[in-house]
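Tutorial handout. Part one gives the primary structure; part two gives the three-dimensional structure as tokens.
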Amino acid sequence: MARIAELSRKTRETDIQIRLNLDGTGAAEIETGLAFFDHMLDQVARHGLFDITLRCAGDLEVDAHHTVEDCGRLLGRAFDQALGTREGIRRMGHALVPMDEALAQVAVDFSGRGWCATSMGTAGSDSGGVPARLLQHFFEGFVAEAKVTLHARVLAGENDHHQAEALFKALARALCDAATLDPRRAGILPSTKGTLTG
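Part two.
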């Protein structure tokens, strides 16, 4: 069965359409009006081997906050929907990723419970309109809707862009690992309590 989700969300602040294929090749079509943010989401697709089409028209004349947070929420919801019952997945994944002088670590668990613990360093790009505090909101929105436990840390780095890119590449690799179907778990829910819905 194809693990694909197609969702849309329209408010007075953002109008977003997204299509996610968990078993893709890393193809991405990202248009949010924020080039730096597009670049980070492209890392999630490319290094997670997810096919992601995401288009957002947001109130960027106000600032980038609503666009970044709402895209995180809808992307998280797409992951939750595409995973379905979560039977057969590895469930947990982690990655340690360098980007020149920067180093980031991400661990995830599709536990059915949204929990976000981050140490962002200075990851982001003020010149691109997406500072670390907004990336924090992206992660918080994503985990709430994906129902995933996430620990993300920038362990080293001086360049803000490098820290952010390492973080998003690590997120991609960890999500890919956790969402991968394990043939030994076919039809089996990876939980001793019998549910991964919270």
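Part three, for discussion. DSSP finds four helices and eight strands in the chain. The mean pLDDT is 93.
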